[in-house]
Amino acid sequence: MPHTVVVGLGRSGACLHVPVLRRLRARFPELLGSQPIVGFDLRAGMALRDVGVDVLADSLDRLSAYVPPGDTVVHVCTPPATRIAVLTSLAAQGFRRLVVEKPLAGDLGALAAIERLRNGHGLDVIVVTHWLSSALTRRLARLAGTGRHGPLASIAVRQDKPRFARAGDPAHADAFDVEVPHALAVALTLAGPAELIDAGWTDPAAGPLGGAWLSVRHRGGPRTTIHSDLTSPVRRREITLRLRDTTVVGHYPVSADDHHAQLRVGAGPREVFEDEALGAFLLAAYRYFTGAAAAPPGDFAVHAAVVRLLAAARDVAGSPGNEPARAR
């Protein structure tokens, strides 16, 4: 049973990963064990009571003094801007099994550095795009893959949620970092490799953290458009698949408050079902790291492709003369 370290105790680490790990430990003690969860945050002044871990380490470079690197899974929940420094330190200490928050890297230079670290140190990197472990995504993949309703023509994703309280959060450079990586990984998994067609910001007044959109064309022909509005008054995570003979509309859970997804195929009845994707993803990751199962869906190449497409989207969105507008 591996030890667990969580590096980065902001919203992702302390509010998502740690509570889910607690629930999984209670349900699967034979897999995740009961060793103290060790945490570390790059920011000073963290209080143990506020972050949910059992032990707060005093230094990133001394984590190996708290746990055996060869028998530990490290959750890297730091912002993309600090990712290289964190991974470099972990690799130097001998940590190899890593669960890394999305996006894998913030730009192409960081991606190249991570690839060098991965190859040079034998890092086993699993990226947290847990929509790929979602029950809804599995159903969509079956519907698109069987051919029963004809070939896939297009994918459209709307990811809307108000995010005003964290508009100045330094964890994300722009809206392409927030919700878009989840949807883009799903699109690449459902429809295959893609190239960017166009991209932009959704609202010029709100700026890069107010929202973003992009459009890609997959090599097989389908087109995907992803629109993320972080100033919306309502929450929505909607995905629409247009097949030759029908249209499929799915809704992912919009928050950790209620883990239920919805699906409607054509004019058929609406299905509602439990879909706790992050728990399913982390359970699959630990089963993989302990040799009990295959890796969770979405290999390293998919996540590297996501980073490359997001980098291209930023270049287009930020280019002179680009008009912030809704996805075309």
UniProtKB/TrEMBL annotation:
This protein's name: Gfo/Idh/MocA-like oxidoreductase N-terminal domain-containing protein
InterPro entries, alphabetized: NAD(P)-bd_dom_sf
Gene source species: Amycolatopsis rifamycinica
